[in-house]
Structure formats: C-alpha cells, structure tokens
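Help wanted!
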Amino acid sequence: MIDPTHLPRRRAGRLLARALLIAGLLALANPAGAAHAEARTAPAGNATTPIDHFVFLMQENHTFDNYFGTRPGVDGIPAGTCMPVRRGQAEPCVKPFHLGELGSLDLDHTAEAFRVQYNNGRMDGFVEGVSTQGKDGKLAMAYYDDRDLPYYWNIADEYVLFDRFFSSSNSGSIRNHMFRVTGGPGATGASESIPANGWGDLPTIFDRLEAAGISWKFYVENYDPTITFRSRTSEEDIDRGAQVIWVPLLAYARYVDDPRLFGKIVDLDQYYDDAAKGQLPAVSFIAPAGDSEHPPGSIRAGQNLVRTLLTQLMRSPNWNSSAFLWSYDDWGGWYDHVAPPQVDRYGYGFRVPALLVSPYARRGYVDSTTLDFTSALKFIEVNWRLKPLADRDRKAKTFLDAFDFDRPPRPAVFLSTERTPAVVQRPNPVPVYASYAVTGSFVAALVGVAALRRRRWT
Amino acid sequence: MSVTRSPVEEMEHDRRGTMVVLHPVDTSVLHPTSRPGDAGQERGWRRWATPAALLAVAALALALRVWRLDALGFNSDEAVYAGQAASLAGNPNYAPFFPVFRAHPMLFQTLLSPFFRAGEVDVAGRVVVAALGVATVLAVHLLGARLYSRRVGLLAALFMAVMPYHVIVTRQVLLDGPMVLFATLTLYCLVRFVQGQQVIWYVATGAMLGVTMLTKETSIVLAGGVYAFLALTPMVRRPVRMSLLAVAAMAAVFLTHPVSQALAGRSQTGKSYLVWQLFRRPNHSMGFYLETVPPALGLLVVAAAVGGLWWLRRHRSWRETLLLSWIAAPVVFFQLWPVKGFQYLLPAAAPVAMLAARALIGMPVPDRIRRLLHRAHGSPGTDRSGVVRAAVIAVVALSLLAPSWNAVNRADNSTFLAGSGGVPGGREAGRWLAANTPEGSVVLTLGPSMANIIQYYGHRRSYGLSVSPNPLRRNPSYEPLPNPDWWLRHNDLQYVVWDSFSAGRSAFFSERLMVLIRRYHGRVVHTEYVDGADSTGARVPVPVIIIYEVRP
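Answered by r_m:
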C-alpha cells in the first residue's frame, strides 16, 4: 500500500509544474480574471502618499457663498452685493440675507436655471433664475453662517476649506454624480436622465480600482438594494428614486448583476463597523439619504451625519492614514458670486462647499486651487497609480497641497457643535491662598501665644 | 472581688471652688520602683523610652498609611477634592472639569494645591493626607498625656495608628482625615482651657473649631459637643463674654470661606448644597453606622471603651464627660442626618481610642488571675497585673492591626463602599479613555461617582445618567443630562461607561444605561477586571468597568 503522504519527489515536482502551466494558460486566456484574483489578495497599502483610506461623501445642493460666504479669510460674498431682480436692470435688487431659521425651498437647479443665473458670465440672474420657476427668487440670495453651521465652520478652523471647488456640471444631480464616478457627464447631449438600460460600459473609478486590486466600497445611507435603474425606470416616482442618481453604480447592469460587485454597495451601517474594526477599504464613497441637506431638508441633520461619520473615522484604527472629503453635488439654485470657468460644454457649475479632514490636513487652511469633483478622482488615480477615466480627470488638479505630509499625523479631536464653546473662568487664586494663609497664621499665633503664656506662668 | 488600683485612679480632681486642676500622675505607679544602683541608668533610659515609643507608633502609623498607597486610583470624592486643588493651582488638565468652588470650604484643597500644579497627581495628595493622619496620631498622644497620662496618650496614639477606620480614611484625599486632626487639636485646646481656665485657650478652642469647619463645614456639629460638655460640667467657669469671644473667633475664622470665595469670584454651585443635603432622600438605612463603624473602630476597642466606663465608674470625671460629648455630637447628628457616609463619624475615633486606652491602662485584674500568675512564676511578692494588661493591650492592638493590614492590601475588591477606599479599575478606565479616545469625547456613566473619576483620570467630559434633572433631587454640584437619548441621537455622547459599583447601587439606572447602549449600537471597546471567584472557588476575572463606543 502506498502512503499518499510519501509520494516520490519526482512525481510531486511533475504535478506542481503541470499546475503552474495550467494556471499560466488560464491567466493568458482570461487576464481580467487573473486581475480579479489579484484584487482579492493584493494589499491596498501601496499608496503614493500616507493616505491609505480615502472617504468621499457627496451632500446636496448648496453653494460656497450659501454656506461660507460670510466667513472671513475666504473668497466670500463681496461687499455691496445686490442681485438684480431682473437681469440687466440694476434696480430693484436683493441683498444677501441671513436665512437662519426662516426655512428654505428646493430652488430650481436645472441646466436652464444655470443658464439664466450664469447669464453668460455676468452672474446677475440668480433671483430671476428662481423666480421664473414660480418661486420667491429672493430666496436665492439667502445664506447661512456659523450660527447655523457651527460644526462645519469649526471643521474649517481646524482642517481644510476649499474656496474654488466647483461642481463639475452646470446642471443638476445626474451629471454631477456621473462626473464624480466616471469623470464624464454620463448622459450626453440635451438629455439629462439615466438611460433605460443603464450607463452601459462607461468606465468608473471602481473599475480602475478593481483592476488594480484596490479595495473599495460604496456606502449608502438607508440603502435599499431593490432600488436599481431597473426598478426605478418603472417606478420613477418612488420616494427613494434618488438612490440610483446618488449611487450611479446602481444604474450599471454589470454592477447590479455581479453579486461580488453588487456586494460592495452596502448600507452605511457597514461603514461604522468597518471603521470601528479598522477595516475601511482604500476608497469609500458615501451617498446620503434623508440627511443630504437637500433643501428644504434640515442642514442640522446633515451636519449630524457628517459629524457621526467623522466621529467614527476619528476613533478608527484607520484614522492615521485617512482623508475624508465632502462636497455638494450642485449649487441647488443658491447664489454664488464666482463665475465658474467653462472648461467644456458641461461645466463647471457654480462653486460648492468642500472640506477635507485628515490627520495630515493643514490646520485652518483655505485651499484656493481650482477643483471640481473629478479632482477627487485625480487624487485616487495619483494616490494609487491608476489611469485616468476621461479628459476631465486627466486635466483636473488635485488637492495634494491641502496635506502636509512632512508632519506626523495629528491626533483626532472631536470638535464642538458650539461655535464659541464656554470659556472656563478660573477664579483668581490669590485671594484664596491669601485668606487661608492669614487665617492659618492667626490661629497658629493664637495657640502659640496661649502655650507660651501658660509656660511663662508655670 | 477586689481589684488592684490603676494609674488612672491616681489622678484626682481638685474640686475646690470652680477651678479644675489636673494633678500630676503618681510616678510610683507609672514607673515601678527601680533598684538604687540602676537609678541613673534607668532615668536615662526612661527619658528616651516615651519619645522612642511614640516614634515607633508614628512610624507604624505612617507605614500603614502609605503601604500600597497607589494600588487603587481615586474614588469619586477624592477625584473632586483633588480636581478642585488642581483647578485652584491652575492645572490645565483639570480646570475645564472641576470648578474651584463646589460645596465645601477650601482649606484642605488649598493646602493640597501646590502638589497639583501640573500633570496627573494622585499619590502626592494621598501622602499629604497620610502625613496629616500621622499628625493626628501624635495629637492624640498629646491629648491623652494631658488628659490622663503619658501611658494613656501613648496607647491611644497606638490605637489610632492602627485603627482601620482612621487608617482607611487617612489613605484617601478626603476632607475627613484633616478635619479629625483639627478636631483633635480643638479638643486639646478645650482641655487646656478647662485645666487652666485661661480665656486665651477658650478663644483658641473657638478658633481651632473654626479651622476644623474650614476643612469640612459639617464639623460645626462638634460645637454641639463643646456645648454639651460645658452644660454638663458646671464646675468649668464660662462667663458669657468669654463664650461670645470664643464664638466670635470661630466665626471669624470660618468667614475665610465666604470671603475668599467672594474675592476670587464666587461660584453659585454650592449655594443650595446645604438645603439639598437637608431634604434629600436617605442614602443608607438607619442601621448603617451600627453596621459599619464599630468594626472599623475595632470591636475590642469599643468594648474596652465601654467597659472602662463601667469598671472605672467611680473615677468618672469631666474628662469622660468631655470625650463622650465629643463622641455623641457627631453620632447623634449624623444618625439623624439623611445623608450617611462611612467616614462621617471619624471625629469620634480619637475619643474612643482615648477611652479605650484609659480603660486598658486602668483595667482591673481579678485576684484569681493574679494568684494564678503568682503560682505560675513562683514569686508571690511581685505584682503581675501589668503583664495581664500588656497582654490584653497587645490583643486589642493586634485586633486593629490585622483588619488594617487586610484593608491596605485589598486592591482588587469588587465591592465598594463610598469613602472606604479607591475604586478598582476606575483610574485605569479613565487612563484608557485618555489614551484611546479623541480629545473632546463625551462620556455617559451610570452615576456621578464614576463620572468624577473619568473626568479626573480621563480628562473627558462625563455625565452621570442617574443625576436627576430635577434640582430638588440632585446634588447641586452635579451637572445633569436632561435627555441622554437626545444627546446620543445627536452624537453628543460618544462613549458609555458601565460599572458594577454604581450598578450595585441602582439596578434601575443600570438597566436604563444598557437600553441606551443597545439602542445606540454599543460596542465594547475596553473592560476592566478584578480577581473574583466562581461557584467552585476558582479565581476568575470579574468585569467591573466596561467602556462602550456608541453612535446614533
């Protein structure tokens, strides 16, 4: 009887050679499969910077001036601004005003609204662009400040605020979200909708990551995996239809139909678990749901979401090698005073708020580099040596200057939701020390005199 | 049954007129007759015997008070007093968490503050208290020697040195240890007044009582002890003017507290503290002191003190009236007071030790035992009563030393009585939070005690779940969290700390905390254990503090 554990060496060698030969032939026949096999095993820690975990959250519908226009030290609302009610007519006009608790509306933010508001670079149609849609155009001139956004303003004090960060498309959500993942507008021509058959073969940044074996996940708040481009087409009006817009991968047949890829689109709860365990992927995209700050939604709820995400990241073992960027998918109809450069027929759109939090982020730094959503793609491509997806991301600048990699990572700090935290008033200690010292001396002297008198008398 | 005469019996009062004079103790009883040839040598030896014995007692007291002093971190009260001292000293680690002025006067905290100027300090504060504890032992000797005799003083000092009650409390940064030192000095001043009838000692008594109150204002109850003594001892002359002068001195000294607060920028925190203490719900049963204090004083010491009052009843004097008044005042007051604390009756420790020492020095030895000793040693002419007393004293002292030694070596106790020592795992949990959680983290604990410890060692803002938002039902110096659920939902609380000590006191809040932990995705990130035993007696780690990470 032959003991299988004691095969002759020559026979074992032959078997090994044959196995290697078959594997090599399979790899030649199916390079994508080989790449996938590598993707499952390759470590993600081959970044060109200390950033091993990049998180990109996209909120909704605000401009830079709408959130930070009154902040000192940034390119904010110019003094004396007064927006004409009608384009080309200086009077009457609407001055920027604090919105505060007045309540907001979902202002028109279509390509047509952009055209009117942009007015060929004259930037004088913000009121008219909204009022032509039957809404109160004055609302476009409203702004929030640190009374309403204390946490974001505190973040800007400690980390990086971008004041020339443009939305990629001069239209609404669909194109901007497509720029976010593909570097292109997705729907070309006049149409701005998701094709009935999905986005087809348009390459995404996740294809690049897959091919390079870099880990990624798309975290979705209140994720409903049954809502995809297929179900949305038939149920256009369902409440959660925006999920497919904000998560463009759900409009790709290859992502929806491949269980492995589909499994990387997960609920936001998974983000908290992954971060807690130090298992965040190299690239994380996050899409919100009800906390998106999309008017008339609560901006406080949005702040709370961002704060919760950052809290979990800051207490994660991944913190020291992470960067968290968040921005807003379009301008939402709000006023912004900077005319966006038109780099192609699709954009840029107006400036949007964007902030970067990282242990390597410069403290209180205002980055004025001209950026857009494809700058995030550029960062991923530079950081993990990936090929560009399209012309936009190839030409885009990125935000490497916002980091200071010469310094060690900063420890995490949970910032306050109060703009001016209560200052600890330390009482003056001198009267305390002095009064107790005087009293102590008095009593000691009294006892001493009593003892001495007694002694003398005896 | 006949008894031998004790040295105490040699002390007599001169009751002529209203004056009370302490006669010198008969040295023939205190110091047995020496052989003529050894007189010079023995005089030299005896000259150093008392100081040497006192030094030994002080060394023993110090050893018991500093042995493994660092084994456990601060308990809640220690954290508060140390935090106040650190804030007063301007230590940036503590100023945001501990206001300088809270509920009590600041004498002790002011004394501590130079040690708390920078960094995390705990042992230094305890060493200061231990030193004050040893000073109390020496003060007890002084008092005993003046009241009765050097032997009584020395023995009382020995009892104080090894008494578990005093040892345990003077190993903690609590107000009670220093307070007892000043209370003992007040008693000493009063004795000097009674013995000499000099106004200045009466005034000094008032001033020293003021200092005692500056350490802890509840010691004003000792004024009741002074009053009771004077009322029961009409032979002590006490003109109204003298009494007013003494009271004025006491008030003037105590005024340091409000005046210093006013000059430094008064805090509003302590204003309603007394009112709250008066009307709060009792925190312990009426039998609390009876269950906890006699064992801590030493059952044999208490028995000796009580026995001495019986067997030396014919020699009862103003001294016993004074000591009993001093004991009765805090006992009666705190028994009626709704808030009970293990350490609150500590002022009674010194007079109890004194009475016990007096009793044992003057203990009668039955003739039968003396005859037995004579037969055993075959020297009928020699009085062996001293041997019997020494043996009894040794037994009593050892009965104190053994539990004290156990107490100072018990570092992993999973049950905890407030005021009886540090909290196992509290310091370590706080340090873990400081090292492993981002600055600015906010912590929810089960009760305010753990919140104080976390704030002291963790430098993280902490709130106790059990602190009532109703101002009528909470300690005014505690900050309530009106709606912890709202705070958690808005990510204003990032960590929750459960501890077995607080859970043992309130199952309701423990369950409520666990509900919040489950609701907000609680994840265990750290656990502190102590050694325990399972049903088979095998040693097992028992979790006492669990830290959860929570999120909305």
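OP: Thanks! One thing I noticed: Residues 39-66 of chain B form the longest helix (28 residues).
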